[in-house]
Q: What sequence folds into this?
């Protein structure tokens, strides 16, 4: 059995089509706790074309960079007795969660928490970089400003936040305008699993392309639906990688392109725990399998963008 601490090195490959652009998924989250400053700084250093912040809201309307509003697993909130009374159960996006939620904390309160690695059992070395503070959208924009690295911002759970009295799309547009990023269509992409918020963002003056994200739901991405998305002003389609690894994956990318939609795939991760079974090694879930082969197959579909936890691996394996 090979050592999980000795990663399989990427093999330079020539993509069958144009090389996809590389988005650092939650920053370089394969090496640092997701959405930490260190993760974004490393992503920039490793040559990512863009970084992906997920955006949720605080009680006082700050756009907080977290993958979901439940912060139980990615912060030390459980170790703060002063916040014990805020632990609760909510239904978010149709799923019940028990924990602590960003919309119940002010930004000042959130700043007293420290970040934690989400997957310490798979990526134990990442935990050495625990204890950073959360970031807001403005903090990341300031970091990106001088770099030329682009922004692919995902707006999370707009329906849930609407139930809490927030219009997260409007808040996002306001913050982008205030930061001078609303009129940079060459550097800003906006993504969500809920299409209406994308149009709210555009109506608010953000000029970047709009990307609609879907899971493994074939009925949502039939050619007719793709044409309707494009006709409604959506510019891109983001799909889970299993949709491209299945029969018809390349046809989906081609159909999207025929409708004028750019294409994105999530998420490229090298560990056995995340690889399609055809590309896993015989080792433990934390061991890296034959990820270069899986990623080559994805790139060969002609997909335009890939989300990767390890931007350096993606750069080496997929960039011409």
A:
């Amino acid at each position: 059995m090979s050592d999980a601490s000795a990663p399989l090195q990427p093999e330079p490959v020539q993509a069958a089509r144009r090389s996809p652009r590389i988005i650092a998924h939650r920053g370089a989250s394969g090496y640092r706790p997701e959405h930490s400053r260190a993760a974004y700084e490393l992503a920039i250093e490793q040559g990512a074309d863009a970084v992906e912040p997920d955006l949720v809201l605080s009680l006082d309307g700050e756009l907080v960079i977290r993958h979901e509003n439940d912060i139980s697993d990615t912060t030390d909130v459980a170790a703060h007795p002063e916040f014990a009374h805020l632990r609760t159960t909510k239904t978010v996006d149709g799923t019940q969660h028990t924990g602590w939620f960003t919309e119940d904390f002010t930004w000042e309160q959130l700043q007293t928490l420290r970040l934690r690695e989400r997957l310490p059992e798979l990526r134990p070395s990442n935990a050495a970089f625990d204890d950073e503070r959360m970031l807001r959208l403005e903090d990341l924009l300031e970091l990106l400003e001088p770099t030329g690295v682009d922004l692919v911002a995902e707006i999370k759970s707009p329906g849930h936040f609407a139930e809490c009295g927030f219009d997260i799309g409007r808040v996002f547009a306001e913050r982008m305008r205030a930061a001078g990023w609303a009129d940079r269509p060459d550097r800003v992409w906006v993504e969500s699993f809920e299409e209406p918020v994308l149009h709210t963002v555009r109506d608010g003056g953000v000029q970047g392309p709009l990307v609609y994200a879907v899971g493994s739901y074939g009925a949502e991405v039939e050619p007719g639906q793709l044409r309707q998305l494009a006709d409604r002003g959506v510019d891109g389609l983001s799909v889970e990688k299993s949709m491209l690894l299945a029969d018809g994956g390349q046809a989906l990318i081609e159909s999207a392109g025929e409708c004028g939609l750019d294409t994105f795939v999530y998420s490229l991760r090298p560990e056995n725990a995340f690889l399609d079974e055809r590309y896993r090694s015989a080792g433990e879930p934390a061991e890296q399998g034959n990820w270069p082969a899986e990623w080559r197959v994805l790139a060969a579909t002609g997909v335009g963008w890939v989300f990767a936890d390890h931007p350096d691996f993606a750069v080496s394996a997929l960039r011409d």
Q: What stands out?
A: The longest helix spans residues 168-178. The domain at 21-70+134-318 is CATH 3.20.20.190 (TIM Barrel). The chain has one domain: 21-70+134-318. Confidence is low (pLDDT under 50) at residues 1-16.
